[in-house]
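Narrative summary of target 7.
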Amino acid sequence: MYTTEYKGTLLALDTASRKTGYAIFQNGEVIKSGTWKLKEKSRFAELLQNIEKTVSKYHITQIVAEDIFKSKEPQKTRAYQVLCECRGIVECVAQNHGLPCTFISPIEVKQHIWGMRYKAPFTREQQKRAMIKAITERYGYTLASSDADDEADAIGILVTFLDNKGFHVMHPRK
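Modeled conformation, tokenized:
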């Protein structure tokens, strides 16, 4: 099933307007994960600083992040714009450091981690609970808090990317 060990250090991100989940993968396992809480007035500067600091501190060799999902609901236009700006920050950091950067759709991650079907009528809260449950119970990760959905998403993004590429991941409970 798995072809090889991933060589390098991978940073997985679930970027959002107020919180960004992250997971750092090295030597076959997640070595650190959590959530950066961002202040509304300085969120872009804080996101940039957090990613830059993490890339430098952990010698990141690749970034993988959740792609943007555009809702058909008109009231979510501003949220979509903010997510586009966050994605630009991620891409900018990757380019400045000469790092490959991959984006994975949120639906692909949910299908891979907990089996979400695209047309199934899940509310946002049900999706969050399903991801947290899969990451903590199925894979055995301990999250910073019981509502750490962004951290769970970041781990899910990382696992999906590595599994799709055939790289081995040592999960706490497997």
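Strands lie at 9-14, 19-26, 29-37, 62-66, 101-104.
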